[in-house]
Structure formats: C-alpha cells, structure tokens
Amino acid sequence: MSDSHGYAVFVNDWGVTTEADTYGCCHCQYVVHLQPGSGKRRGYCRLCDKPTCGSEACRECKPFMKQIEEIERRDQLRRAMERA
C-alpha cells in the first residue's frame, strides 16, 4: 500500500460530499487524505524515496515490510527456543 495513491469520497449524515486524493505512509501504512492549504505537515523519507504520514514514529526510516520481516524473525527465534 505504500506505493499506492488513491481517491476517497466521503458522504456525511446530511449528504455533504467531500473528496480527497490519498496516499499510504511507507512506514506505517496510515492512509493520508490530502487537503491542500490545510497547513498539515507531512513527511518524506529520503531513503525510501516515498511520502510518510509525518508522525513522530515515522521519522526514522523503517519500511513496513522490514517491520513485518523483523516480527517474523522474532517469532521463528521464539519457536526455535521453545523446541530446544
């Protein structure tokens, strides 16, 4: 999803429609709704060469797939230690 760009359409209870371009953060997969002129600051990872959501946790380059791989390695290690 981090390479994805999309488009969102929201309809509230009164039938008012709001539309926005979107992208996924390359580090946490949060879907960001672009609102030009909103003043919200977003980030950009120069190592990944992709946009981020701008949160404090996503300032360090840690791509989502690397995080998943680390979790899988820890699980494999835990299972190996349980067998020993």
Explain briefly what this protein structure is.
With 84 residues, this protein is an alpha+beta fold.
Structure report:
With 84 residues, this protein is α+β, with helices and mostly antiparallel strands. It has one domain. Helices cover 24% and strands 29% of the residues. It has one helix and five strands. A three-stranded antiparallel β-sheet has the order 1-2-3, with no helix packed on it. A two-stranded antiparallel sheet has the order 4-5. A hairpin with a 6-residue loop joins strand 2 and strand 3 (31-33). The chain is elongated. The model has no long low-confidence stretch (mean pLDDT 88).
Note the main attributes of this structure.
two-stranded antiparallel sheet; single chain; alpha+beta
Which helices and strands, and how do they pair?
Layout: E1 5-11, E2 17-24, E3 31-33, E4 43-45, E5 50-52, H1 64-83
Antiparallel strand pairs: 1-2, 2-3, 4-5
